[in-house]
Amino acid sequence: MNSNRRLFRINIGFLINQPVGTLREIPIEAKSISLEKEFPVEDLRGVISLARTHNGIRSINTVHALAEAECGRCLESFKQTLDCEFEENFTFENRPLSEEELIIPEDGNIDFEPLIREYLELEMPYNPVCRPDCKGLCAVCGQNLNEQDCGHPHPGFNAAGGKWDRKPKELSKN
Ligand SMILES: [Zn+2]
Ligand SMILES: [Zn+2]
């Protein structure tokens, strides 16, 4: 895993002597990566835009990734799309001017991985769903209703299509 470790580390030294307002866009990409603290994602891509400010650097970042998730309705695993946008201010000062600012390390290297991880994780839904119209599992027999209609009544689904609106089978007769 250590080979992954510095993928999003950027040396901002090239911006230090540039005039305020100088902008540089740095594309980032990783087909498959385990972000720190065991957060594996695929198809990570985005842009880190760095702008010289009067006392440091502002970064404006957009990141897309796919994360493994389990559908809260049908329990199948699927790839959850995560898209985030965030801004950070970094300062050369020895102390941050505000709590929102991070200090640029003396060697000029900023590792964006902790930030990328944090913001991607914030995009993870509390209750992920594989697709908006996922029908979930039958409460009686556990059948995945996306695959097959087992014939049991599914309260709450009537409004969606009407075809589920039927009388319950008498299970107790078996
Ligand atoms: Zn589902
Ligand atoms: Zn059923």
Uncertain residue ranges:
158-174
State Rg: 24 Å
For the report, how would you describe the main beta sheet? Answer: 5 strands, mixed
Would you list the SSEs in sequence order as H and E? EHEEEEEEHH
Mean pLDDT: 86
Our count of helices gives 3
Ligands bound here?
zinc ion
Main structural class: mainly beta
The geometry reads as: elongated
Name the helicity range.
Answer: 10-25%
Question: Based on the structure, what is the oligomeric state of the protein chains?
Answer: single chain
Number of domains: 2
Percentage beta strand: 35-45%
Q: Strand sequence of the main sheet, in spatial order?
A: 2-3-4-5-6
Distance between the termini: 55 Å
Q: What's the total number of strands?
A: 7
Quick structural gist:
This protein is mainly beta and 174 residues long.
Description of the structure:
This protein is mainly beta and 174 residues long. The protein folds into two domains: 4-123, no CATH class; 134-174, no CATH class. It has helices at residues 13-16, 113-123, 158-161; strands spanning 9-11, 23-35, 39-53, 56-70, 77-91, 101-103, 109-111. The strands form two sheets. Strands 2-3-4-5-6 form a five-stranded mixed β-sheet, covered by helices on one side. Strands 1-7 form a two-stranded antiparallel sheet. The chain binds zinc ion (ZN) (2 copies).
